[in-house]
Each structure stands twice: as structure tokens, then as C-alpha cells.
Design goal:
The protein has 197 residues and is of the alpha+beta class. The protein contains 5 helices and 7 strands. A 7-stranded antiparallel sheet has the order 2-1-5-6-7-4-3.
């Protein structure tokens, strides 16, 4: 991913925080010489520098993942920015936050390890529920998925949030985003740019 210095989102720790907060990813690799992408939630194991997930056994990508270099893309808030929002001249653009992770994928062959992965994924995404669902997976269901882990080789973090604009323009963009109900992107700009508004 092209990341100009002024759009650098932070170090690896910041990237890991972003991935934890935006765990739904696009897993892209090669399938029969063509790019293939699966949308799925991934779990970050910071200590081992691994992403963990699973795909359906019927997904064609499942057969191609072992030993393959892949890219995982995580997207945060994003939205259109009109030059009419600026106080000085500009062009139309798009503000966004994204992390790209590159690494080599290995299949998880052990059924208990796959079961453990499912428990961890469920725990992460059920944590916000008033009454979290407790995992109770039928062994037959486990056989219908393919677990994998990706050893992280590179992590890019890009926060394109009008850092190249004046503070007056930045505040104007935040105001316009709030009026258009893009609260998440407005909040990301306020936090990242440390705007007092």
C-alpha cells in the first residue's frame, strides 16, 4: 500500500490496535493464477504475530491457502470529502483508515486448535452482548471449515485524514462529516489530528 509520510497511521502497536478494533478483513491470495478474495473476521494473536481465521471447506480459496503469501486488508471509517468544504483551493478526495497485513498462510490441522480458534473468535465478538452466546459447536461443523494462521511479515497502516490540509480546513471537513452523519470518520479525524472541537 502506498503510504506517504504524512498519512502514516503509526507503528506496529497502533496497527495492532486498529486491527483489533476493525477485525473484519479481506483475505486476498492467488487461486489458479488469479486473485481471489474472501471477506471474513480475523483474530490477531499479538504475542505470536499471527492472524487466525477460518474459511468454509467449500470455499475454493481453502485449497490454495497452505504455504501461500496472502494480503489481509482491514478498513476503518471512510468517506468522500468535497473541495467545497475547504476554505482554500482543493480537489475531491476520500478520507479513510486502513491496515494491510502481508504474510504466509499455514493451515491449522489439529481439530482441537481449530475448536480453540472458534472459541476465541466467538468470545471476541460476543463480548459486547448483554448475554454472550456460549460456543457449542457440533464436531461435524468443525469438519466443514478450514482453520488457518498467517505469520505476519509486514504491516502497513494508513490514516488519510486531511493531514495535508490546514487546521481550518480540517475542522471544516469534520463539521461537514458530522452534518452528513459520518460520525465515525469525524471522530477518527478529531482523535488523530488532535483537533479541539
Amino acid at each position: 500500500m502506498y503510504v506517504p509520510k504524512h498519512f502514516l497511521g503509526g507503528d506496529e502497536l497502533a496497527a495492532f490496535d486498529f486491527i483489533d478494533a476493525h477485525g473484519f478483513a479481506q483475505l486476498t491470495g492467488l487461486l489458479d493464477g488469479e486473485l481471489f478474495c474472501t471477506h471474513l473476521p480475523l483474530l490477531l494473536d499479538r504475542d505470536r504475530r499471527r492472524l487466525l481465521g477460518h474459511v468454509a471447506l467449500g470455499n475454493p480459496q481453502a485449497k490454495a491457502l497452505a504455504g501461500q503469501k496472502v494480503q489481509c486488508t482491514f478498513a476503518g471509517p471512510h468517506g468522500y470529502v468535497s473541495p467545497s468544504w475547504y476554505h482554500s483551493a482543493g480537489v475531491p478526495t476520500w478520507n479513510y483508515q486502513a491496515a494491510h497485513v502481508y504474510g504466509t498462510c499455514q493451515l491449522i490441522e489439529d481439530n482441537e486448535a481449530v475448536h480453540d480458534l472458534l472459541r476465541k473468535l466467538t468470545h471476541q465478538y460476543e463480548a459486547g452482548e448483554a448475554t454472550p452466546w456460549q460456543p457449542d459447536y457440533n464436531p461435524g461443523m468443525i469438519k466443514a471449515i478450514v482453520g488457518f494462521e498467517i505469520a505476519l511479515e509486514r504491516v502497513d497502516l494508513k490514516f488519510k485524514l486531511s493531514q495535508n490540509r490546514s487546521s481550518v480546513d480540517q475542522q471544516s471537513v469534520v463539521h461537514a462529516l458530522r452534518l452528513r452523519n459520518n460520525q465515525a470518520l469525524a471522530a477518527a479525524m478529531v482523535q488523530q489530528l488532535k483537533l479541539d472541537m
